[in-house]
């Protein structure tokens, strides 16, 4: 005889149903949205400055073929061009004023302290959540800032900033499978490996590259997916140590390896798959450094309370080290007289950021709100007045609120600026304001790469200029899905060989929309199916399953 489930059993049954629905390939949950499959391959920090000459020498034949068959573009990164803001923004189609992710750290509210971000810091829905809600199957491998892994229909293995000992994959048992195969979620120095010598690091990176290639090939071979996205972070990690723009050496070798792996992934994905290759920012070398901290002190905008050399924190994983360095730098300041603050992790490449020590916002703020704009104008004028050989150092200045307006704008600094392309920007208590290096320093550049080809992509020889925030809306459109009205990124309909009008829907009108606050909770199969049916009834997903 059947009894209704007891109230205590209900959550368990819901959980089983949710797992059944998330398990790919089960007929009960099969998707009826169009099967237009897309593979996205991310090469963190890849730049056409090096790729173009390598293609010219015939050393990256797979990417060359992709660009020749399809389209390519410079992909402008976030300002500042940093992996966290750029990847989160790319996958959500939204900028830092909307996602709330500007940096690897975020201010603890009502404090000068910073805390490291994670996937929950992103206030916007990433593409895998949107597609999961609409019944599509996704594979997400190694995308930075995806820990803790959110429940998706398919597989998700988190990337950079994953705590190595935690569960960093979805479904939960996938972590132990990947661990047995030797995959590390993060090959960088942020959470581990800071103590490795450069040669050991290189060896580890090559070993990880092969494991990740095989893990990705296995997922692609399951043939049950609509979107697969894999990011190779190692290029950025090695470039920070060794990039010199040369077509000889470890960076060029790594790009050749990535090109070979790309060929294998494209082959496994099959001819019906549209393929996108992209990076979150570029790379370059900088002969000069502009150090914001001593500049603020010299300009009287920040006041130190003590003398003596800056204290360095003890060696630690970079996420701990950077937060501690920031704490020690703040301790040197007399906050009662300091009007402007700079944080090193909010500077990258030839871009820097500044925050006012604002009364009512910062705990010891001294700048009254009604004087904020006048002070920003004064700081902008002072920045623009800095002369270096060749002309003014600072070429562009933005108000954070105007560059990245939106509900999360409070997490964006007050002033963002760009310098000449041969000057990198840092904020360090050590060293002078302006330095020339004997050996130019590798660092990020604004322009990343984009290339796409496949059965639904048209061919165009001329290189376009798009934004990294265009990735999610463009991929959704390519897959035949509506994009969100809230997305500031653009869906490039011109990518398609038979362009379709871009369908837009507001979060509020999409029954499958899940805000970040709810994304780590699990839904029942019935709830999800009801959402998908509603979306279809609204005409934002058709029943065509070709
Ligand atoms: Zn990056």
List keywords for this structure.
546 residues; alpha/beta; Alkaline Phosphatase, subunit A; Gyrase A, domain 2; 2 domains; nine-stranded mixed beta sheet; four-stranded antiparallel beta sheet; globular; disordered N terminus; binds zinc ion
Task: Write a brief caption for the model.
This protein is of the alpha/beta class.
Task: Describe the fold and architecture.
It is a single chain. By secondary structure, the chain is α/β, with parallel strands linked by helices. It has helices at 10-22, 48-56, 61-69, 83-92, 96-99, 127-133, 173-180, 198-221, 234-242, 250-269, 292-298, 318-331, 372-384, 400-403, 471-478, 525-537; strands spanning 38-43, 71-76, 105-107, 114-116, 138-141, 154-157, 169-170, 227-232, 274-278, 282-291, 340-341, 351-356, 387-388, 391-392, 394-399, 415-419, 423-426, 434-445, 447-453, 464-467, 483-484, 504-505. A nine-stranded mixed sheet has the order 7-6-5-8-1-9-19-2-20, sandwiched between helices. A four-stranded antiparallel sheet has the order 11-12-16-15. Strand 13 (387-388) and strand 14 form a beta hairpin. Helix 8 runs parallel beside helix 10 (250-269) and helix 9 (234-242) packs antiparallel against helix 10 (250-269). It is globular, with a radius of gyration of 24 Å. It binds zinc ion. Zinc ion binds at residues 44-45, 83, 236, 280-281.
């Amino acid at each position: 005889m059947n009894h209704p489930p007891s109230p205590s059993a209900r959550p368990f049954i819901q959980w089983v149903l949710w797992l059944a629905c998330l398990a790919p390939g089960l007929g009960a949950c099969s998707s009826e949205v169009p099967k237009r499959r897309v593979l996205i391959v991310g090469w963190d920090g890849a730049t056409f400055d090096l790729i173009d000459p390598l293609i010219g020498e015939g050393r990256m034949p797979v990417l060359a073929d992709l660009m020749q068959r399809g389209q390519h573009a410079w992909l402008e990164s976030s300002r500042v061009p940093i992996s966290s803001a750029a990847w989160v923004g790319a996958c959500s189609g939204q900028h830092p004023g909307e996602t709330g992710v500007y940096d690897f750290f975020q201010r603890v509210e009502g404090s000068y302290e910073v805390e490291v971000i994670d996937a929950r810091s992103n206030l916007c829905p990433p593409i895998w959540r949107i597609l999961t809600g609409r019944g599509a199957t996704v594979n997400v491998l190694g995308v930075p800032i995806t820990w803790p892994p959110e429940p998706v229909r398919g597989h998700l293995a988190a990337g950079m900033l994953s705590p190595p000992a935690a569960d960093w994959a979805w479904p939960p048992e996938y972590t132990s499978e990947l661990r047995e195969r030797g995959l590390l979620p993060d090959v960088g120095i942020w959470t581990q490996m800071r103590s490795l010598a450069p040669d050991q690091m290189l060896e580890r990176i090559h070993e990880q590259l092969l494991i990740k290639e095989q893990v990705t090939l296995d997922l692609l071979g399951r043939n049950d997916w609509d979107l697969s996205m894999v990011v190779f972070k190692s290029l950025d990690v090695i470039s920070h140590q060794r990039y010199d723009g040369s077509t000889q050496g470890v960076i060029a070798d790594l790009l050749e390896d990535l090109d070979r792996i790309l060929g294998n992934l494209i082959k496994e994905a099959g001819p019906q798959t549209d393929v996108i290759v992209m990076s979150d920012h570029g790379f370059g070398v900088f002969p000069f450094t502009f150090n914001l901290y001593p500049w603020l002190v010299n300009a009287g905008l920040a006041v130190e309370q003590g003398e003596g050399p800056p204290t360095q924190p003890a060696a630690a994983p970079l996420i701990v080290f950077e937060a501690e360095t920031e704490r020690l730098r703040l301790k040197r300041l007399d906050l009662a007289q300091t009007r402007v603050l700079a944080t090193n992790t909010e500077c990258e490449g030839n871009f820097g950021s500044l925050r006012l020590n604002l009364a009512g916002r910062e705990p010891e703020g001294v700048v009254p709100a009604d004087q904020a704009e006048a002070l920003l104008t004064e700081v902008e004028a002072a920045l623009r007045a800095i002369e270096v050989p060749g002309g003014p150092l600072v070429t562009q200045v933005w108000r954070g609120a105007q560059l990245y307006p939106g509900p999360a704008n409070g997490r964006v600094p007050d002033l963002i600026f760009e310098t000449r392309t041969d000057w990198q920007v840092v904020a360090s208590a050590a060293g002078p304001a302006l330095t020339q290096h004997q050996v130019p320093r590798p660092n990020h550049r604004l322009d990343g790469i984009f290339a796409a080809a496949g059965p639904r992509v048209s061919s165009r020889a001329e290189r376009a200029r798009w934004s990294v925030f265009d990735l999610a809306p463009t991929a959704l459109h390519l897959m035949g899905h509506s994009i969100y009205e809230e997305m500031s990124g653009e869906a490039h309909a011109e990518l398609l060989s038979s362009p379709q009008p871009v369908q837009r829907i507001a979060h509020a009108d999409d029954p499958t929309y899940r805000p970040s606050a709810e994304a780590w909770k699990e839904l029942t199969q019935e709830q999800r199916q009801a959402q998908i049916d509603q979306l279809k009834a609204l005409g934002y997903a058709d029943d065509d399953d070709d």
